[in-house]
Amino acid sequence: GTCFTVVPRCLLANIDAFGAIAQIKIKNINANGYYISLNNYTNSIFISIGDAAHAIDSFDFSELSNILVIGYLKTPINITNSRHFIFNNIVTRDQAGGINIAALYSAFCGDFIFNNCEFQGKVSNPPLELTAYNDSGVGTASLRGIKFNDCVIYGSGSKINCSTAGAIGDLWFNSIAFDVGSASEKCLYIYTATGSSLFNVIFDNLYLVNYTNTAIEIQADMPNSTNSIQFNGGQISLITATSVIKCTNINDITITGVSFNGITATNIIEDNGGNIIKINNCTSNSTVTNFIKSSNTSNYLFTNNAYKGVINISGGSGSSVNNLLLV
């Protein structure tokens, strides 16, 4: 079963009447799932907040603080169609999964702040999963306004999944670390399906290390559905993959001041079919075939980078200037 269930009472249709208002505070808990593991209770989780048909909101922030979750066999923290939560010092261990946040049907989910949290997981139960999904045929599932400050993500398989009639945007990852991948799986996969939109995703001072597949893949089924992705500073190291960062059909991506070290790959950055890609002030001392592989990208600008390998451009249009080839 579920240790804590926060049961909402406000139907989605009644949100505008402020029926969803409820403030929640849960603090100082050691959630040890020893007996859950011992008895193989694979459906047990620590906390479920919200559900697909209802909403939870608060004029102030609801709060979860100082919580350790270990020993569970399934993603232990699940949040659906909820708003205005702050999470301080939340830790999940044992690779059973971290946190799943979902906007479902025509609901809004978001306005969350995560401070000094640590989530551990694997591909089958990701450390971090953000989803917007609506198959009702009415409205849009909207997941927006989430800040991660000084958080650590352990394991592979984190996802930002903008699926059927979904909208995901305004995500800030400030001084976030991704570490210790497993079994040839991606660190982070960002996906936008046809008919959905993803926008304004910002990584400041990213630290990403020890993965044996693509570190970050950003894919859109259709051009112009994924807009404004930024990587500002930080370090990506010890990656073994065909491409360290791979982008397909992305509009307006900026990679600035990122250092790539200890890379075993064909491409540091691969972009296919994008529009407005800016890569500047990055460094890579790893011996690779291509520092940048760009195919059919419009309006590219590659400036003031220092690298080994080549900048391999086929098709598209743009400018590559003031770059330094290291020997």
Keyphrases for this structure?
29-stranded parallel beta sheet; 31 strands; 327 residues; two-stranded antiparallel sheet; mainly beta; 1 helix
Q: Tally the helices: what do you get?
A: 1
* Strand element count: 31
Report the sheet-strand fraction: over 45%
Binned, the helix content reads: under 10%
The first-to-last residue Cα distance is 59 Å
Main pleated-sheet profile: 29 strands, parallel
Mean of all residue-level pLDDT scores: 92
Which word captures the global form? globular
Please give the oligomerization state of what you see.
Answer: single chain
Radius of gyration: 20 Å
Spans of 5+ residues with little confidence (pLDDT < 50)?
A: none
Structural class: mainly beta
Task: Describe the overall structure.
By secondary structure, the protein is mostly beta strands. It is 2% helix and 61% strand. It contains one helix and 31 strands. The strands form two sheets. The chain has a 29-stranded parallel sheet that branches. The longest helix has 5 residues. The radius of gyration is 20 Å and the shape is globular. The model has no long low-confidence stretch (mean pLDDT 92).
